[in-house]
Structure formats: structure tokens, C-alpha cells
Design a protein that fits this description.
The termini are far apart. Helices cover 0% and strands 46% of the residues. The strands form 3 sheets. The chain has a 3-stranded antiparallel sheet with strand order 4-1-8, with no helix packed on it. A 3-stranded antiparallel sheet has the order 3-2-7, with no helix packed on it. A two-stranded antiparallel sheet has the order 5-6. The protein is globular. The chain has no helices and 8 strands. It is mostly beta strands.
């Protein structure tokens, strides 16, 4: 339809956790997984990166096997080129206004080779997921 759908999540950013399992491939310790979580703050059905908040999680995958990643939504930050930045919207974590989530798999430019797997991307309330 061309419009975003806001996810039905708890509005309390301190009670909501973003969780996922990431598999680190053997002999590839240069993988980076970047999650971008966009909020439709004005609730107009679209995300506008010039005046709405995007919160990010960058994970350097430097292990072999599965690892559970869990982070409280209120602990996510805005990133620009991997560095903390000021959010472009109201600066408040509004998980009930999340409209999009992107996942990028990046390689360290030093060697250009990366590989990992992703599973069980889930939000939980009042604590991290307990698999």
C-alpha cells in the first residue's frame, strides 16, 4: 500500500526489549549486523528520516556459534556512520510508534569478507527473551 504499519508494542521503552539470535561463522570475525528501527512519530503512515527518530543497534559478530543479543529499547541510540548521533525527531524512545525495522549485514572494509546468520528476531516485555 506504500504506507507503514505501526507495530502494536508497549509504549514503555524501559519495559520493551529487542532480541535476536546471531550465528557467527567460523573464520569470519569481521561481520557487522546493523539493525535500524524507525518510528512514525507523527503517525501519518510513513517514516521521514529528516524529522522522525531512528534508533540503531550495531553488533560486531566476533564469535563462533549462536549468541543471544538482547537490549532494552530505551538503551538504543541513533547512529551515523557507526557513531552516536542526535535523533532527528522528538528524541524520545516511542516503541509503540515503530513502523519499520531494517537489518543490514556489513563487512569490515579492512578485509571485505563477512558471514553470519540471524534467527528469532522478537520484542519482549519486562525482560530479555528466555529461549
Amino acid at each position: 500500500t506504500g504506507t507503514d504499519v505501526v507495530l502494536p508494542l508497549n509504549s514503555n521503552a524501559n519495559a520493551l526489549y529487542f532480541n535476536c539470535l546471531i550465528w557467527g561463522e567460523p573464520n569470519t570475525n569481521q561481520s557487522i549486523v546493523l539493525f535500524q528501527i524507525m518510528e512514525d512519530e507523527d503517525e501519518n503512515g510513513t517514516f521521514d528520516g529528516t524529522n522522525e527518530d531512528q534508533y540503531d543497534l550495531e553488533v560486531k559478530v566476533d564469535w563462533v556459534g549462536w549468541k543471544l543479543i538482547s537490549i532494552k529499547y530505551s538503551d538504543l541510540v541513533s547512529l551515523v556512520n557507526g557513531q552516536p548521533a542526535t535523533p532527528k525527531g522528538n528524541g524520545l524512545h516511542n516503541p509503540d510508534k515503530i513502523s519499520q525495522i531494517s537489518m543490514l549485514h556489513l563487512a569490515n572494509p579492512a578485509d571485505g569478507f563477512a558471514s553470519s546468520k540471524l534467527d528469532m528476531v522478537i520484542f519482549t516485555e519486562n525482560g530479555p527473551v528466555k529461549p
